[in-house]
Amino acid sequence: MDLSSATEWGSINDSEIDLLLRERERREGAEEAVQVASSQPESLEATQADESGVQNSDDWGSMNDGEFISFVNKLSQSRGLKQPLITSQPVSDHADQGGSDQNIMSSNRASESFRSNSPLNDQDLQLSVDPAEVDQGSQEIEFGDFDTYFRHKALKQQEEDLQYVEFIKNARGLEYPPVFEGCVIYINGKTSPDAEQLHKLIILHGGTYIQALGAKGNATHIISETLTPQKKLEFRNYKVLKPTWITESIESKRLLHWADYMVIHNDYGQQRIDTAAKPVVEEEAEISQLSQITDPEDNLDKQEEVEMPDHMNCKHPNFLSNFFAKSRLHHLSSWKADLRSHFLHRAIDTLTSRKLEKVATSTRVILHVDFDCFFATVSALMHDPPIDINSVPVCVTHGGNTSDIASCNYVARAKGCRNGMWLRSARRLCPELVCLEYQFDEYERISKLFYEILLGFEIDSILPVSVDEALLDITSLSVTKSPAEIMTEIKQEVQKLTKCSVSCGSGPNVLLAKLALHRAKPNGMYYVHDDEVLTFLDTVRFADLPGIGPQICSKLETELNITNAWVTELRSVSKQKLSSVFGPKTGVTIFNYVRGIDDTTIDILANPEEYERKSLSIDVNWGIRFDTDVEVEKFLGDLAKEMNTRLLKVNMVGSSITLKLATRHPDAPVDPPKYLGMGHCEFVSRTTRFGHFTREAGILATELKHIYRAINPDVKELRGVSISMNKLVSDQKKTQKGLDADQKQLPFKSGLFKLDKPESLKPATKPKSPVRRNEGTFGIRESEINWEVFNELPSQIQKELKEELGRRNLGITGSLYESPKKRKVDFFSNFVSPKKKRPPERTLLDSNYIETRTPVSFQKTPITDFMGIMAKLGTWFDHSIQARGPHEKDLVLFNEFMFGLLEIDEMLKFHSIVRLFEEKLIMHKTATGYHEWSRLVNELRTIFNEVKYEDLEFGF
DNA sequence: TCGGGTAACTAG
DNA sequence: CATCGCTAGTTACCCGA
Description:
Its cofactor is Mg(2+). InterPro entries: BRCT_dom, BRCT_dom_sf, DNA/RNA_pol_sf, DNA_pol_Y-fam_lit_finger_sf, DNA_pol_Y-fam_little_finger, IMS_HHH_1, Rev_trsase/Diguanyl_cyclase, UmuC. The structure is a single chain. The protein is built from 38 helices and 18 strands. By secondary structure, the protein is of the alpha/beta class. The protein has a 5-stranded mixed sheet with strand order 9-10-5-11-12. It has a 4-stranded parallel sheet with strand order 2-1-3-4. Strands 13-16-14-15 form a 4-stranded antiparallel sheet. A hairpin with a 2-residue loop joins β9 and β10 (about 470-475). The protein is globular. The relative contact order is 0.09. The structure holds a DNA duplex.
């Protein structure tokens, strides 16, 4: 694929096009080749329900304990979790009934880690993001999350709602019609059914529920039985509807018109009614025909009320998903990532199982295979009726003047059209150019087919290059067949099964295979024999060498005064000269390349670990137009969430994050020629280290905001935002290698603060399960409950499971060591509503209080000995600030302790600790752990201030 | 001379 | 109306220890 042959950055090269046109008048018939492919559809098809006998969660009550545990395990499996939640039967229950196949605990993780053992199936070749996994962002709540939480309660709620819906759909295997799609609903006061039930109904049917009515009118509908005069005034600009609107809409499986359910007939509603004063029957008929989405009236209403931005830019709530769904480059990148993580492992398994004896030869035969203008070909085939790409000039594009051409066929290229060119330019060159739609689904389908076909050949190795392009090692195969025969077979097979043509190039190394492919396009093949390497290279342009781009070419021009160079011309330049001009590495590479030398290996069996992901980034350089810092911070929060989702999907955590900002270049126009494009920009990037591994969205978001404030760019000049997680390790590796322990487990490990769980110091046998505090009341042994899995469940489900386990006396009291996350969520949910907050008469008789309350202590020192705790904290601080900052494990304890203080309303003690650290910080400005501690203390300060603020606000 | 952070470049 | 200019990886370069 050739993506950049004609990229138009910021300026339209009309004059160049003119030149081209004039030149073409003189002579007809240039050709070139190339093509692009890309992109994955975000198919929103529903997740397949688990059909393995998972019952409706409403049925919990009727199961016996064995069945219940089995049920829970199936739930966790249905969510794609690697391990069962509960790993054996409760002690009290008769052993081993229906659950024996789930007793494998963490022992199977190692084998799962790198290669998948499953037989050939769709999953192995899954190229796209599985929608079922997308919204399972973990609920880890750590320090950074306070900040986020208080700022974005609503977003948090919606994330949890999404997970809840996902989970329920999976567990029940039911589809709920998205009746309330696009509706943002607020519930006011007492209703029947009550708010909690309405909430669930709304989110299950595609709606968004908000628990607070934002200042800027973010709700599309309000549900209420009655309204006080005060509220009437307050809600005068909303559609206030009776709860029956919800229930009856669900019953009839479509959105009933709101006008029939109004609680108040205010001006706003009146107006609407007037314009919609047609008979209701007709109204409803229209809706059912067009679906509520296309109902022009409803759309209008939403736009007015939700305060939508005029256009789909970065301020739009769905901007990110919309953008990625339509971005060819995003699809291209994620396909490649998926190929490397999924297909590569499958290829390794397949090749290994064949046990192909390695041919004893030092010279290898490498083959490069690539579709001819992939997107254009596939889109033309999909067109109804199919288009003959050999006679009609076509291209794939979204279709505006400044829309990029993702791919054009060779007929169009003959007229001068190039991939990456803007449609307007291409139309000037070729007025009869036919525009085709993107067909991301089909590209992906063909790609899977392609790779299956390749794997069918007896190859030594295969390295995916892109969705439509792969490198093969055919050394063994070429013992019995000539490269030409092999290439012919591949071309025929692919043509037969995909109806698309591919080109093949082969030679003694990767470099020559690539150059041969270039020569072979379109729809051809070329083999560079060992003894004709130099002759072949005589006909190759320097710019066609892999890794040689426009910058290097222009450097060649300015530094060596060679333009339009042939490879041959570079042979006379010494290695030293090349190195001094292009840098040591690039210089040597060029020196070798022009002699046909390349030692790049594609042996995936020899070094599989080389293909493991080292970083994960998200770039948005289109549609970025902000007015305020608040908008940017919200956007950063969204990016952090997306990052969490993507990291979760690949089971990785990172210890450093980078924010890169693009701002308009001072010389560039405010509005670049490309609609919502970035234009010519300046870039800044900055990296922060966490000191521990994480993917928690709150932490990422907090860190990003800090960096953003530090960079402090002119908001209105922002044109691009990228974030990148670096220093990645897989979850499993982190556990196996004990990277936690590697990270300065704090001096007091040996003395003052003996951790009371010796096994936690042995990473190799580190238990998945936490050690409980309360002995005795558990029907299930601690080792039987996998808290890691439990913690991955949506908090709503956690709550329900917890209640059910409690009811069965199987036990979770919420006081478990490594389950602070859950407690924090509970804690927050008590904070969310001012009304619910700290009922003054809370007593020990209050069951909720008993259930969630834990004696507050730190390192076994009870809160009553506060001075003792302060002393410990001081020592901890002094030791760890000389190291790399606080250890994650200690932070968990500390975190829990501080939460405890808040929970029992010990604001003074909380503040004393913040003050203690703040004072100590001043004296350690140069210490190694200063940054980490400083960040932590700042968080604490923020929390304190915000909690205090909340107190004042609600009059406590 | 190194190691770490940032910027630039390339590919598809 | 428009339009969806992504991302992983390598290398160069600069700085301070």
